[in-house]
Queue: 2 jobs
Job 1
Amino acid sequence: EAQVTQNPRYLITVTGKKLTVTCSQNMNHEYMSWYRQDPGLGLRQIYYSMNVEVTDKGDVPEGYKVSRKEKRNFPLILESPSPNQTSLYFCASSSPGTGAHTGELFFGEGSRLTVL
Amino acid sequence: DAKTTQPTSMDCAEGRAANLPCNHSTISGNEYVYWYRQIHSQGPQYIIHGLKNNETNEMASLIITEDRKSSTLILPHATLRDTAVYYCIAFPTGGGNKLTFGTGTQLKVEL
């Protein structure tokens, strides 16, 4: 089954404790991206990757890092989490269009992160 | 990307057609109209997209006006499981780096 898998789905942590949210897709997609969703602010893009070893900032990259060493994986790293990073996070992937990607994104189930 | 405008919320009776409007009066000729939905904090789900012609798939139909300034997503026989936030998004035909989600329409399907 074609899917985007995120882990963990739920996490409560404390300020400053490094954490990684993993994302894996099994569709051989070149494009992957991370979004966060907050009440009243909607979905905002954090980082995206057009292919292996190619990543770029989205709208809200501060406080996050990403890496793309393999096509299927795109982990989101919070080196020193803060309470303002409490949010619902989504990973997405897509096949490439003539631009970075087509408009058909496949999203993971989401990871709800709470930073105390 | 063109801005889209949708009603904040709509109700629909189960079994009836749900017609969700979207205004995109500033859409350019090289932008698709995409529709997604998000069921209660799950990941957004692609529904359908179109450029000029009306489109239909197993989930929904998309009607785009001739001047392309507005469109309507039609769920022909809404069920309780269609209760979700529906997003209308303008997206370049040449591809792009991100989808810009607005606030969408909260559709509530009731018995």
Job 2
Amino acid sequence: NAGVTQTPKFQVLKTGQSMTLQCAQDMNHEYMSWYRQDPGMGLRLIHYSVGAGITDQGEVPNGYNVSRSTTEDFPLRLLSAAPSQTSVYFCASSLTGAEKLFFGSGTQLSVL
Amino acid sequence: KQEVTQIPAALSVPEGENLVLNCSFTDSAIYNLQWFRQDPGKGLTSLLLIQSSQREQTSGRLNASLDKSSGRSTLYIAASQPGDSATYLCAVQGGTNAGKSTFGDGTTLTVKP
């Protein structure tokens, strides 16, 4: 049972490049979410989804896009990377959004 | 807007000591509260989840309590061990931000042998 899988683990981008962070879960969870973690600022919610086809913004959505075409996958897209997006990104899922949250191992992103 | 505060930011104790970590939140209309552990360079692992209707949860040497009316939770760790050294974060779900979790900044615990 893999749980929540994030790829890649590390990524370096140049300013203006685009990329997609992948997140997949095999627990049939309806709720999936993306967080970024920065020193001194804790974990902040970027976007979340309560089911396939449904997404909503979190606390810091600007510069990021998401879609949820299947229950299993919830990719996070950076359209035009900026140095302010240098962070560690975590994907998390739970059964319906009000239960135990399961986290992936994170993606460390550097934007130069 | 829900705000979650954890005090202290860092704590160092000798092995074997019992300790309490604190978490407070501003909006008491929550669905649940979770305590997580994060090791350096790793993701978060859920330790305990307390539903809004519950007062406490226990798992091994860990006991978490919830006082929703006062907006407070505590994580009690008994007989601390060096392997307990990590950052502990609390998070609340629901309230005015239904479906979203709001995290505290964490308490970094060091247990000295």
